[in-house]
Amino acid sequence: MTSRTDLPPADGAADVVPPSRPSMGRTALVLGAFVAIGPLTIDMYLPALPTIVTQLQTTEAAVQLTLTGTLVGLALGQLVIGPLSDALGRRRPLLAGTALHVVASLLVLLAPNIAVLGVLRVLQGVGTAAGAVIALAIVRDLYEGRAAATMLSRLFLVIGAAPVLAPTIGGELLRFTSWRGIFVLLAVYGLALLAVGARALRETLPPEARRPLRLGATVRTYRGLLRDRTYLGLVLVAGLTMAALFSYVAGASFVYQGQFGLDQQQFGLLFGAGAFWLIAATQLNPLVLRWAAPSQVLLAGTVAGLLAGVVLLVLAATGTGGLAGVVAPLWVVLFAIGLALPNAPALALSRHGEAAGAAAALLGAVQFGVGALVSPLVGLLGNDARAMGLVISCALLLGTGVLVLLVRPWQLVAETGPDVVIAAH
């Protein structure tokens, strides 16, 4: 297992490479905190969506587009910030993006209408893109083999669990504050991250390993990534899996509160209860990888999620089981997504360590870009459980098709063997 952090620091550099690798526990804690700001920003205000519709005198579809705007900002921001971090190092772009998020969060307090709120949500997304993409690049800088897989499982625990836990936190906050108060808390969290990052986060990409920041070079890097059929397939699978998760996230407040009559706090608690299954699956993943290849776990999780999504669609369309008939298959979907979620990105990033920032950026852009495109469909189709089940099933059906046609998991097993999760490049 190798590390780039044993290289000597550049003289006079403000963000030098530390002489020794930081502890895995501290690295996971710091990176997890930066990764969490994205899901918290996306989802903490979900219990307040019906309230925002009333206060800003708009429509449900328009309010859901503010969620889409955040995902668009995340997707586009990563495409810029990833190559930027390959050229300038990881630390400065990460702190700059977090600062942008803080400013956008505070400006939400002054948003007079849904259009301004939508623009600010896009800016928030761009700011949080730094944490989403640079955290993965830092892991690729520091770790290989099972150490990388372990770290990625910890980070994807945050990525997977935070979207489900955030509405619970938001629902509890609404007991004491308005929906705008949620954005004050997000700004405070961003300021805390800036303080922690400035003090505890060291540069992990030495100057001699950086790539030139030129448009032509960036385009060539992305073109080379897109020519890798397996990488492209894994990125699409990751995006479609995230789309299924965001379909649940975008529609759940209207399904639970509008269709089944739960209040904000009940919605937050029930929504958060699903986090247990997502967390359990992500933490079970390293144990499963002891006897199964990551590509096999990815295929099993995707297919299981598809089957559960179809059950959800049938029960919702027939009205069978009421609220329980919706919640039970949704929890199975979340468990299956928790198995698939870490493995597609881990396999994709393992193929392009020489351009980790760009590879992580394209991965993240597709994940959140597909999520941005798919999540409004739940609202357009009726914002009910049947619409949610249909979108989840279609996303995972497409994901399964991409796995079979482009990724071909049986070939990955033959190439890497069952024990390899992240291979050095």
TrEMBL record:
<dbReference type="InterPro" id="IPR020846">
    <property type="entry name" value="MFS_dom"/>
</dbReference>
<feature type="transmembrane region" description="Helical">
    <location>
        <begin position="182"/>
        <end position="201"/>
    </location>
</feature>
<protein>
    <submittedName>
        <fullName>Drug resistance transporter, Bcr/CflA subfamily</fullName>
    </submittedName>
</protein>
<keyword id="KW-0472">Membrane</keyword>
<feature type="transmembrane region" description="Helical">
    <location>
        <begin position="230"/>
        <end position="255"/>
    </location>
</feature>
<feature type="transmembrane region" description="Helical">
    <location>
        <begin position="297"/>
        <end position="317"/>
    </location>
</feature>
<feature type="transmembrane region" description="Helical">
    <location>
        <begin position="61"/>
        <end position="82"/>
    </location>
</feature>
<keyword id="KW-1003">Cell membrane</keyword>
<comment type="similarity">
    <text>Belongs to the major facilitator superfamily. Bcr/CmlA family.</text>
</comment>
<dbReference type="Pfam" id="PF07690">
    <property type="entry name" value="MFS_1"/>
</dbReference>
<keyword id="KW-1133">Transmembrane helix</keyword>
<feature type="transmembrane region" description="Helical">
    <location>
        <begin position="323"/>
        <end position="344"/>
    </location>
</feature>
<dbReference type="InterPro" id="IPR004812">
    <property type="entry name" value="Efflux_drug-R_Bcr/CmlA"/>
</dbReference>
<feature type="transmembrane region" description="Helical">
    <location>
        <begin position="151"/>
        <end position="170"/>
    </location>
</feature>
<feature type="transmembrane region" description="Helical">
    <location>
        <begin position="28"/>
        <end position="49"/>
    </location>
</feature>
<feature type="domain" description="Major facilitator superfamily (MFS) profile">
    <location>
        <begin position="27"/>
        <end position="417"/>
    </location>
</feature>
<dbReference type="GO" id="GO:0005886">
    <property type="term" value="C:plasma membrane"/>
</dbReference>
<dbReference type="GO" id="GO:0042910">
    <property type="term" value="F:xenobiotic transmembrane transporter activity"/>
</dbReference>
<keyword id="KW-0813">Transport</keyword>
<feature type="transmembrane region" description="Helical">
    <location>
        <begin position="387"/>
        <end position="407"/>
    </location>
</feature>
<keyword id="KW-0812">Transmembrane</keyword>
<dbReference type="InterPro" id="IPR005829">
    <property type="entry name" value="Sugar_transporter_CS"/>
</dbReference>
<dbReference type="InterPro" id="IPR011701">
    <property type="entry name" value="MFS"/>
</dbReference>
<feature type="transmembrane region" description="Helical">
    <location>
        <begin position="267"/>
        <end position="285"/>
    </location>
</feature>
<dbReference type="GO" id="GO:1990961">
    <property type="term" value="P:xenobiotic detoxification by transmembrane export across the plasma membrane"/>
</dbReference>
<feature type="transmembrane region" description="Helical">
    <location>
        <begin position="94"/>
        <end position="116"/>
    </location>
</feature>
<feature type="transmembrane region" description="Helical">
    <location>
        <begin position="122"/>
        <end position="139"/>
    </location>
</feature>
<dbReference type="InterPro" id="IPR036259">
    <property type="entry name" value="MFS_trans_sf"/>
</dbReference>
<feature type="transmembrane region" description="Helical">
    <location>
        <begin position="356"/>
        <end position="381"/>
    </location>
</feature>
